[in-house]
Structure formats: C-alpha cells, structure tokens
Amino acid sequence: MSTHDEHSGEHHAERHDAANGAGASADDALLPRLRVIEDQPLAQRADAYVQLHDEMRDRLEGGDAPRTQGH
Fold first, then answer.
1. 33 and 52 Cβ atoms separated by less than 8 Å
2. Where are the compositionally biased (Basic and acidic residues) regions (predicted)?
3. Total-model pTM
4. What are the residues whose beta carbons fall under 8 Å from the beta carbon of 9, sequence distance 6 or more?
C-alpha cells in the first residue's frame, strides 16, 4: 500500500469513527479479539468465530432490541 493509500485509509477510519461515536470503541476491540481467536486451536477458533458472527449480526440487525427465545 502506498503512503497516499495509507493516509486515505486513515482519513476514512477517522470519518468512520466520528460517524459511529460510541461504536468506535467496539471497532477498536475487534482486531485484538480476532488475533486472540486466530491463536486458538481449530475447534475453539470455530466456536469463537460463530459467537463473534452472532454478536456482529445482532449489532447490524438492531441488537439493542430484545431477542426472541428461538433466535
């Protein structure tokens, strides 16, 4: 990636963080969490990715709304 591309990416990230406000801290926690998942044995890694997927889906689909018992 060129220096220009890196700076463009940084500016995009800054705009993204500013637009998301409190969501930025959750975004900042994603990469370290992915690194921890990648260091786990395969079976645990698969379970961790399923859990992460479910959490991300809930956030995208309005995870702050109460969930029904059956998903």
1. yes
2. 1-18
3. 0.50
4. 1
Domain ranges of the chain: 24-63
**What's the first-to-final CA gap in the chain, in angstroms?**
41
Instruction: Report helix, strand or coil for 23.
Output: helix
Q: How far apart are CA 13 and CA 17, in angstroms?
A: 6
Helices 23-38/42-60 angle, 10° precision: 160
Measuring CA to CA, how many Å separate 29 from each of 11, 15, 57? 19, 18, 16
Residue 18 has pLDDT above 80, yes or no: no
Orientation angle between helical segments 23-38 and 3-20, nearest 10 degrees: 120
